[in-house]
Fold each of these.
Amino acid sequence: MPRRAVITADSWGQEPPLRGRRAAARRASPGRLGWYRSRGEARVSGLGRGHARGLTDRTKTDDGVVLRVSRATTEAVAPVLVFASADQRPAAAGGHIHRGPGAPGLVGQYVYLAGNGRLGVVAPLGPSGPPQATLLDLGAPSSGALGRGERGELAVLTGAGVGTIVDSAARPAPTSLLATRCWDPLAPSGQPIGVIAYDVTTPLWSDGATKERFVALPAGARLAARHGAHGDLTFPVGTVAVKTFSVDGRRVETRLLVQHEVEDWVGYTYAWNDAQTDAELVVGNRLAALPGGKSWYFPSTSDCTACHTPAAGYTLGLEARQLLGHGGALAQLAQRLPAPIDHEALAKLVPVAAPPPATSEQRARSYLHANCSSCHREGSATGVTVELDLRIDTPLAATGLCGEPHAGDVGIAQARVVVPRAPERSVLVARLRSLDERRMPKLASRVVDEAGLAAVETWIRELASCP
Ligand code: HEC
Ligand code: HEC
């Protein structure tokens, strides 16, 4: 049976710099990963301080490294199956019998980290003779340690933080949009069946595409509100969010975000056919040509979770302040909440081109909130590299915008992330303007958002001081 394991980590899998012997030692000595519920932290033991240092130097304890935890994202990889022969015995450090959720195909089997980013699996009752190990590719730069996560799921240390391993074989995705049975086959271009249509105040910039958005909730299921005043909504298992992108009046892509189990959101994306009658599943990422010399990037499943982060609660635009003032969607969702949302307490978002009384600060901060804060916020894995919190209700002094850049000066002398009155010396602006590897966000955008850029530049030009 073809199988694949999927490693999940809250980043696009960037390895932090590890050099020389230290790197070699870390790769060679897997440790154990444990979850410390009282602290809400994952901790690695069995690694010397030096070995673990390249992973994060943020917080250290005597017995290892404390990482800011980011659980659950996904990368679909091609199946890789290698049967080790009897004399290639697996290095069994860090292994255990898996009993937890997330990877039903691995339950009852001995799992260990086999190096080269692979998961070794040994069945307790194999064929007669010496035990055989199956090596499953984790498809992401891995990892010095394996252990159990908070709920007993398989947790693994990656260069970017703590990830969860799930077995994706359990869940083949429908190969076309109509096969999802969310749409009426007679009206594939219409809206999906039984959904709430909604719109947001400040959309993600998607190279000028227009979008339609829907969310479907299981009948009778309740919602929860997170962080009170932030207006984030927590959706029930079984929720499906849908976003369709059109360019020049033609549907190009439909993205589905499905919550299969608690906090286990998986993204799927579909490319529309020329006849606009159905869309086919995109496996991996894809760059496609569009009429008029344009191009379109279809993100992979792991791209989805780079932005739809656990720290942001997975769904991004489906938060009360984004939905406020856009028809009945918020009221419909609010009916399923235990308590009403206090609209007055929400920091207001405005569109990038909002007329006064919207201020330049509101326009810019709204833009950064909507486009950037899913990664740049407290608790997200990008915090290992840079220290920005771009949520709209984070006071300017606490955003990190006024500090020095942590990820390079991008060629600007005496660079700061934001220099008051000087957009040209602000790394933030350079990142928005850039189309190379400095681009922010790095994913799924290949055209500069002139309106967003202008809003940010105007705000910086008018900014008297940075606290
Ligand atoms: C560059 C970051 C980024 C990537 C990559 C990305 N998204 Fe999103 N997505 C967003 C943001 C921001 C929003 C909310 C704003 C909006 O809807 O315009 C959003 C909204 C959505 C929504 C509506 C529900 C919600 O969360 O607000 C769906 C569905 C969705 N994305 C699916 C996907 C899928 C599936 C993928 C991968 C195939 C993906 N996205 C990749 C940033 C991203
Ligand atoms: C998918 C996650 C993600 C999103 C979305 C994202 N960023 Fe980033 N950002 C990163 C990562 C990772 C780094 C550090 C690595 C690098 O330099 O690319 C970074 C670095 C930066 C830096 C450099 C900060 C420093 O200290 O050097 C700036 C400025 C920045 N991002 C701005 C933005 C802006 C503005 C947006 C929205 C338009 C945005 N980012 C959206 C992940 C993201």
Note: The pocket of heme C (ligand 2) is lined by residues 306-307, 368, 371-372, 374-376, 382, 385-386, 388, 405-408, 417, 427-428, 431-432, 440-441, 443 (CB under 6 Å).
Amino acid sequence: MDKLLNNLKDMKYTPYYNNFNIGLLFLMIGGLVILQSCEEKKTEVLTPAPALSSTISYSRQIQPVFNMYCIACHEPSNFQAINLIDTASYKSLFVNHLIDTLSPEKSELYFEIKEGYMPPSVPLPSTDISLILTWIEQGAKNN
Ligand code: HEC
């Protein structure tokens, strides 16, 4: 009879014990899931690169301004002081000392567009003027 009682106790105890283990397992899994999601959030915060997106690209942002407003006059067959077509513009700006990265606002290129001398007829949109100034301030990179 005693043996039977003991067996019964064991039977009751065993599932209880198992439930405890399962509970612990879920707790651990839950903890891991939370940890994992925290780490994902961390990398999300670290990935954005605002510095890269705000760097002005000469080929993608500056040259198109020259193409639109300048090369009608500043191209080899209608040569006016500087050549601003895409294969020559960057070198031409430096050969003619039109860029001063140490004092960007004193650059001849900036002076000409800011004062409205170039282009001669319609002034360059102010957004393009500040774009060119910022590009010079960023070191006038050929990027
Ligand atoms: C309608 C024709 C025409 C257009 C368009 C034009 N230019 Fe000029 N540009 C000239 C002529 C002509 C000269 C040389 C005579 C002078 O300095 O006025 C000149 C001279 C310059 C100079 C001075 C070069 C030096 O060695 O001192 C710069 C800088 C310049 N242009 C930049 C530009 C830029 C940048 C644009 C476009 C935003 C532009 N130009 C559009 C005709 C033009």
Note: Residues 52-137 form one domain.
